[in-house]
Amino acid sequence: MKAVVVGGGIGGLTAAIALRRTGHEVTVLERAPELREIGAGLSLAPNAMRALDALGIGERVRTHSAPSEVSGTLRTSSGRFLRRFRPGRDEPLAAFHRAELHSALLAELPETVVQTGIDVTDAAEADADVIVAADGVHSGFRHWLFPAAPGPGFRYTAWRGVTEPGVGPPVRGSFTMGRGAYFMIHPLPGARACWALGAAEPTPGVRNPSEHAEVARRIADWPAEARELVAATRPDAVLHNDILDLDPLPASRATASRCSVTRLTPCRRTSARARARRSRTPWCSPSRCGTTPCPKRWPRTTPRADRVRRTSRSRRAARRRPTRRRRGGCTRCWR
Ligand SMILES: Cc1cc2nc3c(=O)[nH]c(=O)nc-3n(C[C@H](O)[C@H](O)[C@H](O)COP(=O)(O)OP(=O)(O)OC[C@H]3O[C@@H](n4cnc5c(N)ncnc54)[C@H](O)[C@@H]3O)c2cc1C
Predict the structure, then answer these.
(1) Range of the domain at 63
(2) Which of 39, 224, 266, 321 could pair with 98 in a Cys bridge, judged by C-beta atoms 3.0 to 4.6 Å apart?
(3) Which ranges carry the FAD-binding domain (predicted)?
(4) Ligand 1 site residues, Cβ closer than 6 angstroms
(5) Closest C-alpha to 237, from 293, 180, 182, 167
(6) What total of structural domains would you count in the chain?
(7) Residue pLDDT, tens place only, 299-333
(8) Which of 200, 194, 277 is nearest to 232 (CA)?
């Protein structure tokens, strides 16, 4: 089959590699005049690496990555560790420089497959049996196929940076949570490190005269490792982007409702059913509790001070009575 992949990003190139493996004739059409990926670090979870293994390119791609212990290392902004990475229990993520991952994927495709400088605005333009729309978060194809589906929504804002080789402290990967913000660190091959500061903001598009100074200000009392990494990053290498997100498409929701991935991508129908079931359940919901008495409210047991004064006879009698829950209230909201 003749397949056209619209978009030469990480998703498009991977789709092209997969299609070629299954014997299809593939062309990648990319709008940009030159194929290159900018950005900072990017980590791939073990399931993403397994997908690359299934395509037979996992080992080659892995050589461009460093294992990051971010998956098991969690601490607070005061530096207190809530969790430490434990080999065997936690699986490291594969941390890449985005440009290097993109180049590694591109190297898996023959030169003639990717054609740049082609802006595909209509499916009819592509002479293909199948079109894979991998045109990014602002996908024109998505809008064309699902005009009613909401576009990307603003989630939070993020600053990212990569240190120069050998500059900055050695790192193993960590995730630090603060009030309305996180700081993520990954090691990169070549004695480099990448970091990202994510912060909740009410509106997108707010920019600062010096993004480097803004990051330093925001993490002024955060762990020294974070501050040292930012200090070791060239100010002009600090990127600031708003993070957008897309809801699953209606088609994927419908599929999800009939298969076992429902929990990963909850479909509206399932949640409506779940909501209806919950409303029929006699347990009170936290919102109802406290306003109207819950029909299943358990009677409170005798206060502890009284209980200890009971005689052994009354204790034996109490034991014969049907068991009551120690704590009164609804078993769901514990009121
Ligand atoms: C700050 C940040 C950090 C992230 N970190 C991680 C991470 O650590 N791990 C992770 O797994 N994911 C991460 N992500 C998400 C990940 O980067 C994206 O999911 C991924 O890059 C999407 O790849 P893509 O190929 O689908 O889209 P894109 O990379 O957006 O590529 C789309 C391509 O399509 C081209 N294109 C668009 N329209 C047309 C058209 N009409 N005709 C032809 N070409 C077109 C564009 O020029 C572009 O090259 C991060 C995202 C951001 C923003």
Answers:
(1) 36-115+150-245
(2) 39
(3) 2-96
(4) 6-12, 29-32, 42-44, 119-121, 134-137, 140, 158, 160, 241, 243
(5) 167
(6) 2
(7) 334 444 444 455 566 666 666 655 444 444 444 44
(8) 194
